[in-house]
Structure formats: structure tokens, C-alpha cells
């Protein structure tokens, strides 16, 4: 089991570390890379997985519900605590709700459970992203328009993939294969970009970051654990939900805070320390998952 955990986590941190090392000596235009990834490679991956009839989406409805419950439930659980501690809700709460499913979650789940986990990983990624670009943006700016959300490539790709899957239309194999190949670029690129981005933040507000590193996985697990007993999920989907609930804050929270000028330094500390904290949290979560939910082959 230890060997499997190491085999799962080491590629994740090695690729992210490569990004950090490269970014330390060079100044890559990571914004352009992230734009290319989020506007082309990730939407292609999402569309290809959703449109592939070999992955019937009806089988993932309860998983999608569980992922949404984890995202929204962790926010509801932490809201009174955040208010009691007199922290800025717009600054602190979104990073606790919207986790690093794209940069860390999807690669980690595929490495841990193989390609069979990719549809489930994409489903929880889509749920997290759509909630982030709807509920998350509304929390920060209630004037965000629905048209702006629908125009986002990942949202459009998700809707198109869902329509193709539900319609029963079979896309040509060569087209799906090309989309899968291009979409596959997104996973290592997410990790590489994560490493570069983490160099841009600082530890000036380390106390808030340390609190977030504890509360983010704790609140997610607090919601996920009872759901694992209540929802009719197969072992692989249970494992995906458990890993999803323990992921650290998404780097996107920092980018959004920077865009809306909402204390980006504090959010940066939440993201950086939370992702560093995952060095402890994720091995423990993987060990529990392999021991009690989904034993590695």
C-alpha cells in the first residue's frame, strides 16, 4: 500500500516541482499557458469524456450530487465559524469550498485508480468548476451575469458533451481519439502550472493559511463521510468522493481574488499553505481509501 501511495503522489509532486524549478530560473508566460489549457485542452478533455458513450452519465448522477453536496456543504458548515472568527467571508470561504480538482484532483485520481477513474474524476471536476463559476462568482460579485458564465469554454463543452451523451449519438472513433489526445495534455500542464503559480505567492499571512489548510479538508470530509453511507455509490465512486473532499484549495481562488481585488495576498497564503498541507493530508486520505474503500490491485 505504501508503494502504491508513493506511486500515486510522487508523479503529482514531481511534475508540480518541475514547474516550480523551471519557474525559479525562467519567467514562463504561465498566464497564456493557463488560458490555452482552460480554453482548449480542458474543454476538449471534458467534452470527449462526456460524449464517449462508453461512460454512461446516468451511472454518475449520485456522485455528481455528492460532489455538489461536499462543495456547498463545506461552505455552510464553515460559515458560522468564519463569522465568529470575524474573517472576511468573501476572502476565506470560497477557497474552503472550491478545491484543487483540476490541478491536483484529476491527475491524482487517474494515477491512484487508473483510467477507469477518469469519467468519475471529470464529473467531480465539472461539478466543482460549474459551482465555482456560478455560486462562487455570485458570492464574490452578485452582479455576475448568467450569460458570462455560459460563454466560458468549459461550461459550453460540458453542456455539449452532456447533450451528445444523452442523445445517444455515436461520434467517430478517430474524432474522440484526437480529442482525448489533446485533452490529455491538460493534466500534466495543470500540475506544471500549479508549480509555477505557487512561486508567486508568499507566506505573509501564514496564520490564516494554516487555519485554511486544516479547515478545507476537514470540512469536506465532514460532509463526505456520512454521504458515503447514505448514497448508493460503487467502491470506485466512493473512493473518488473521499479523495475529492480532502483536496486543498484551488489555485483559481487566487486568480479570482486577484481579479476582483479581494485581499489576494491572504488568498495566496490559503492556497499555498493548503497545497503544502496536502503533503500530509493526501497520503493519509489515500491510505484510508485503500484500506477501507478501494483496495489497490
TrEMBL record:
Domain of life where this protein originates: Bacteria
Membrane topology: Multi-pass membrane protein
Descriptive protein name: AEC family transporter
This protein's GO CC annotations: membrane
Pfam families: Mem_trans
Main location: membrane
Transmembrane parts of this sequence: 62-85, 105-131, 152-175, 181-199, 211-230, 236-256, 268-295
Keywords linked to the UniProt accession: Cell membrane, Membrane, Transmembrane, Transmembrane helix, Transport
Organism of this sequence: Vreelandella populi
Keyword Repeat annotated: no
Subcellular localization(s) per the UniProt record: Membrane
A GO biological-process term: transmembrane transport
